[in-house]
Amino acid sequence: MTPAQLRAFSATVRLGSVKAAAADLAVTEAAVSTHVAHLRRELGDKLFTRTAQGLAFTPGGLRLASRAAELLGLQDRTILEVRQAGSGRRLLRVAASSLFAEHAAPGLIELFAGRADDLDVELSVHSPQRFGALLVNRAVDVAIGPPPATAVVGDESMPVAMAMNCTPFLNYQLIAVVGPDHPLATGAAGGAGVRELREQTWLLGPSAVGRVGMVPSVLRCLGVPEHNQRIFQSHAAAVEEAKRGKGVALAVAFAVAKDIAGGGLCRLDAPALPARGSWNVLALADREEPPTAAELRRFVTTPRAIQAMLRGTGVTVGRFRPAIHVTLWS
């Protein structure tokens, strides 16, 4: 059983066809079929059959899919660790929900990375639904976001079940805000009814996409139709649009406290709000957890870390990085 064979099978499972797997791996369909045939002979299992609806996987095929992702992730992690040992540097790969990444991650990671000269921290934004698979596949070392819905983690295509460490570290409130010129601003103290809120234009950040997290939960609770939702590239951009009276925005309370105090925003007393959530650090169980991930889990609960997340640490112009999909602190 070789890494090439496992990659071919894993791509076939993930993409649903040999043709798509070949295109993804930049090889021929014959090469993918050959790799799968070797696995079938070695394991004594058909792994999958073709049906009118697509590929139908055997129980053994599903088990191999899970193990293949785990083994390939472990291989990539080993290569990374060997290279780090040779260069004298360590890399911590952090996956975060978009809400945490925008509002709290910069201060935390800047402070954490600054504690050691040999440590680089890479932050990438993902849906919380993918956290379990990313950790099991060793694509990231730690994930930060809402608490997991269940004890079993994984995604639809590759079922996995591994023990996870979950460390809650920061509670927050999600509130609804409007600009001072918005029609609802005059009655903010008295509250707005559910029906009235449903008819408003909702200005939302990227955390509104998907079904996991506080923002999607509030939208479902209020029954806001999709045609009344406008999604922006950042939560800050949505709040700025709300300041101009363009609609209602959902915001993390501590992030907009100054705007509310200064009159730039008005807080709505709305049903289902404020919604209370928590951010958590997820990592593989102790035996599988990288040392830097365990170090971050311990650090996030300290007073210095909490203060940095709420207020930021401040960075010099030479260390500043714009908000993009992947950010590297070193």
Protein described:
- With 330 residues, the chain is an alpha/beta fold.
- Helix content is 41%, strand content 21%.
- It contains 13 helices and twelve strands.
- It has helices spanning 3-15, 18-25, 29-43, 59-87, 98-103, 105-113, 131-136, 194-198, 214-222, 235-243, 253-261, 291-299, 303-311; strands at 48-51, 54-57, 90-96, 119-125, 142-145, 164-178, 202-204, 229-231, 248-252, 266-268, 275-284, 326-329.
- Strands 3, 4, 5, 6, 7, 8, 9, 10, 11 and 12 form a ten-stranded mixed beta sheet that branches. A two-stranded antiparallel ribbon has the order 1-2.
- Strand 7 (202-204), helix 9 (214-222) and strand 8 (229-231) form a beta-alpha-beta unit.
- Helix 1 crosses helix 4 (59-87) and helix 6 (105-113) crosses helix 13 (303-311).
- The chain starts with a helix and ends with a strand.
Question: Layout of helices and strands, plus pairs?
Answer:
Elements: H1 3-15, H2 18-25, H3 29-43, E1 48-51, E2 54-57, H4 59-87, E3 90-96, H5 98-103, H6 105-113, E4 119-125, H7 131-136, E5 142-145, E6 164-178, H8 194-198, E7 202-204, H9 214-222, E8 229-231, H10 235-243, E9 248-252, H11 253-261, E10 266-268, E11 275-284, H12 291-299, H13 303-311, E12 326-329
Parallel strand pairs: 3-4, 3-5, 7-8, 7-9
Antiparallel strand pairs: 1-2, 4-12, 5-11, 6-9, 6-10, 6-11
